[in-house]
Amino acid sequence: MRRILISLLVAIVSLSWIPAAYAIQTVPPGNRNAEQPDIPGASVRRTKGTNSTFERKYQKVRELLATDKQLMSKIKSVSAAYGIAPIHVIGALVGEHTYNVDAYDGLQSYYVKAASYAGESFRFAYNGESVDDFVARPQFAACNGKSDSYSLWTCRDDVWESDFRSKTVGGESFPNNRFSAVFFQPFYAGQTFGLGQVNPLTALELSDLVSRVSGIPKLNEKKAGDVYKAIMDPDLSLAFVAASIRKSIDDYRSIAGMDISDNPGITATLYNVGNTRQRAAALAAKNKASGQTVWPEENYYGWLINDKLDDLKSLL
């Protein structure tokens, strides 16, 4: 029922919220919150555990971007390919390396890390059941007709949330955790996933778009090694970072009637939290119900990007 309601909400909002003559509203620059929203405890503990601080981690990734001309060139190139300003990609990378992981000293270190995965045998599974077998269950039947990877895997994610998460199905109990964490993160907690910290499920969702724009072969959940190569190799993973941002901008424009492309703090927030279709639909429904404009708000991650925006733009 929850899945059906989500799908209906997205469809109804997409069709009825924006009249033909309606002008897309541009989200104002800057932060809506005067002070930074609370930073999750896990991020605080992870940073303290490495004897670091958020400011120190910010300065480290900033230094990487300022000194690695090859990396900056790649960021500008991939941003142009996906029709977004490079500051959005910079914001996503800075947020990840400030709050989730420490930056390496140079782009070459990311290549070395990616190479360490080469030839390894990976499998996306939970309790011995591969994700390919799992999504063949009848609960996922409604997703089978989806024609593109984004619709297909977001549908499957919705089914997980509505039919399996924290439930007992056929005598088997499923954890109260995200689909991506249960089936697509087989390594120990804190395992890094490359320059953009792209989740394997996100990579599968964006596979068609990235293949179309960047020419990267389409990904398949049966070939987990290929998925990890795509998100670990900087030459490939930056395309998925840019595609994710492109998708969030498109979702908010088509579903919520809002142009977020001038607010890197919002795109960084969405890069961090995901589920842009549902969030755009919820915002559109709120605006429609209230009859007033409610702007999307940044979280702690996006707040930093807007707060440091002049400094980050100087890198360009």
Beta-strand residue percentage: under 5%
**Which residues sit in consecutive blocks of at least 5 with pLDDT less than 50?**
11-21
Largest sheet properties: 2 strands, parallel
Radius of gyration: 19 Å
- The spatial strand order of the largest sheet comes to 1-6
Task: Summarize the SSE layout with pairings.
Blueprint: H1 2-16, E1 25-26, H2 41-49, H3 54-67, H4 69-81, H5 86-99, H6 107-115, E2 125-126, E3 129-130, H7 131-134, H8 149-164, E4 168-169, E5 172-173, H9 179-184, H10 200-205, H11 207-214, H12 224-232, H13 234-256, E6 258-259, H14 264-273, H15 276-290, H16 300-307, H17 309-313
Parallel strand pairs: 1-6
Antiparallel strand pairs: 2-3, 4-5
